[in-house]
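Task: complex structure prediction.
Instruction: return structure tokens for all chains below.
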Amino acid sequence: MKKEAAFWLSFKEEMLAAASGLGIDKLGVTSAEPFLELKERLVRHREAGFESGFEEPDLELRTKPALLMPEVRSILSIAVAYPSKLKGAPVSEPGKRRGILSRSAWGEDYHQALRRRMEKLTEWILLRVPDAKVLSMVDTGALSDRAVAERAGIGWSGKNCSILTPEWGSWIYLGEMITNLPIQPDKPLMDSCGDCTICIDACPTGALVGPGQLNAQKCISFVTQTKGLVEDEMMVKIGNRLYGCDTCQIVCPINRKIDSRHHVELLPDPEVAKPLLRPLLFMGNREFREKFGEGSAAWRGRKPIQRNALIALGNFRDKESVPDVAKVMREDSRPVLRATAAWALGRIGSSEAIEALRTALSSESDTDVTRAIERALTNP
Ligand code: SF4
Ligand code: SF4
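Output:
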């Protein structure tokens, strides 16, 4: 490993030049220093109750790269751009209403897409430095993808909590590779949000509680991935989102007109990205895997997506779906789905929906579901 500084300078230059051939759109480097400012922010975040519960709980691990690799000398941040527009989007019409998956769940699961690229980059590194150590992570790793990317000069941290790149906006997947290589770090970019607050103003739930401050408990993106009952007010705000929420990215002026379509495996199948809602209600596990298994929306299983499909049908007030929604309320073995179906029928509010609620009330034995039916009957 003992090599002159000049070696590492040309190594970095060659690596940057090789990146696009490996399917990486942007590569930045940061030091192995701990993320001290991030740690303070995470402590405040935790104290305020803003965590989602999906994060790595150990704040030391999240902010100290040396705990993950004692000989760490640098961290590579990689970004891969993904599409933001759905070409040939199918039309949502009465009786054939459709939901929507967030853009980060379109196409191949980004964890796999990034891992493949990071493996290729690791091979590239090992060919040149056989005793290199590389530890790759994406999303579920201990480090914060965004904090690494910000410090490595990939983009600035926007008020919507996304990393915004001048080239690809925030429509990027991020991963990082911890290494024992003394590569020269890059400089962070200047924050270019300026006075803009469009994302904060557009958030339907007020989850952006300040610039770059997210209360995950109020964020639709997080709530669509939970498995339990959702509060009535939140269900209305969810609209027809089946997985995730893109509102604070769609409205961002930096993102406007950016639609990166150069990675074919990340292009969406319109029938998966914007699926018909009613068939989702009766989808078995195998069917679910066939339809969604390739993408990142599958990680929580079919239940959240089916619950969200019921919410969407309620929000569409789709009268034609009443027989299907009522069937879920009567026959589904999962109380969360039966209770959500009751809410949806109350929101649709047609005479057929009310009749179905009244009938179900006499046979339902679960107290949560009974309560949901009674609420749906009193506040249609
Ligand atoms: Fe708000 Fe949606 Fe952005 Fe969450 S993802 S902060 S709910 S706009
Ligand atoms: Fe920054 Fe405005 Fe984009 Fe929000 S909408 S991230 S404030 S540029």
